[in-house]
Design brief:
26% helix, 4 helices, alpha+beta
């Protein structure tokens, strides 16, 4: 994760957010940063509070999870059962990676127990319409569809799209 900034008076202000290939990397202007190196008149910085983006493909029996590690951008994948005991294991796996933003599709009733568990654990969750996720995947020109690839694409969705936190329905 990189972010470009420039020197003003005695302080550093975050400026345009770009990576080496000029793609937005999801850091926010004004976020705490740490100097990594100097290039010409720009100062390249890495984000201190980088977000870990996570995609979860939910089915009746399993949760396929992809985590994009903020330090390397490389995915880590795991599969969990879709039950309360495995939800706890998933939360314990995600907690050390905080701050985490999770995206999953609305899958009838299958995602609800997971959504409540993540909400109670204080993990940010966005539940997206399956059609919106499908259109995002189509825009990435992916033809293969497996649960693992869907989880990868949902993690990319979390990284690239505006995050709208899920709100638990009131009792």
């Amino acid at each position: 994760r990189r972010l470009m900034a420039w020197r003003t008076r005695s302080s550093l202000l975050a400026g345009s957010l770009v990576s080496e290939d000029r793609e937005d990397v999801g850091c926010k202007v004004g976020e705490p940063v740490q100097i990594v190196s100097h290039l010409e008149e720009f100062i390249i910085m890495s984000s201190v509070n980088a977000v870990t983006f996570t995609g979860i493909d939910v089915s009746a029996k399993t949760l396929d999870v992809t985590v994009l590690l903020s330090a390397t951008g490389k995915p880590r994948r795991r599969r969990f059962a879709n039950n309360s005991e495995a939800h706890g294991a998933l939360i314990q796996w995600l907690k050390p990676l905080a701050p985490v933003q999770v995206v999953c599709e609305a899958t009838g009733v299958y995602h609800l127990d997971l959504a409540y568990a993540l909400h109670r654990a204080g993990i940010a969750l966005m539940v997206v319409n399956p059609r919106r996720a499908k259109r995002f995947i189509e825009a990435q020109r992916r033809n293969t569809q497996t649960d693992g690839i869907d989880a990868d694409e949902l993690a990319q969705f979390a990284k690239r799209m505006d995050f709208v936190p899920w709100k638990a329905p009131s009792d």
